[in-house]
UniProtKB/TrEMBL annotation:
One of its GO terms (molecular function) is dCMP kinase activity. ATP binds at residues 12-20. Residues 8-221 form the Cytidylate kinase domain. Pfam families: Cytidylate_kin. It is found in: Cytoplasm. One of its GO terms (cellular component) is cytosol. It is an enzyme of class 2 (transferase). It comes from Alkalibacterium putridalgicola. Belongs to the cytidylate kinase family. Type 1 subfamily. This is Cytidylate kinase. It comes from the Bacteria. Keywords: ATP-binding, Cytoplasm, Kinase, Nucleotide-binding, Transferase. Its EC number is 2.7.4.25.
Amino acid sequence: MDNKSLTIAIDGPASSGKSTVAKRIAADLGLIYVDTGAMYRTLTFEALKNNVNIKDQKALVDLLEKTEITFEPDEKGQSVFSNGVDVTYGIRDNNVTNTVSVVAAHPKVRQLMVKRQQDMAQDNGVVMDGRDIGTVVLPDADLKIFLVASVKERAERRHKENKEKGIFSDLDQLKKDIAERDYKDSTRDSSPLKQAEDAVRIDTTKMTIDEVVDTIKNLIKKA
Ligand code: DC
């Protein structure tokens, strides 16, 4: 198959390495990368900024309808814009990280997000990462990957990343936060985190990024 029209879905729990791997695959194959978690984070960021109650589905839908979320590739990988304003760093803030699961659990918010995500993949080859890409957003994707890693390993990866960025974090707290987010994301009613039946599961606990990328590229060759 022509690489330019490939659709690749990468799902998995928080900090399983999805975005790092998805970015690399997209860059290597010349495909668009869509970080769907960043879309839910942008809506959460806007809700917190505008004092919108994150439990109020209708208010969130109204806010989302007024919020254009766009991505632009750059030297850092990709920047995220909310109505043209760069929110790349703001959406990674702890306030957003700790509340985004509540926003992402509203079915009507998800409906609108899924529609936008499907539109982005309409005429383009994409690598899209998230929680429901293989199950809901791109059920006919050419390749579906489900990345997993132990909570301990994911917390340690996040801790190291934070250290490199000069951000203080407590490893035990990170483990608790990650386990809690796993629980919320996989037990919500509306399209919970779940492996698609036809997805390839890759446990990255003992793998390097290069090994994961190579494994996926080999699967693409066979897709
Ligand atoms: O991948 P991430 O940590 O940036 O995702 C942020 C949150 O958004 C996470 O709690 C799960 C949710 N999410 C989702 O429900 N569906 C997606 N397709 C992507 C993310």
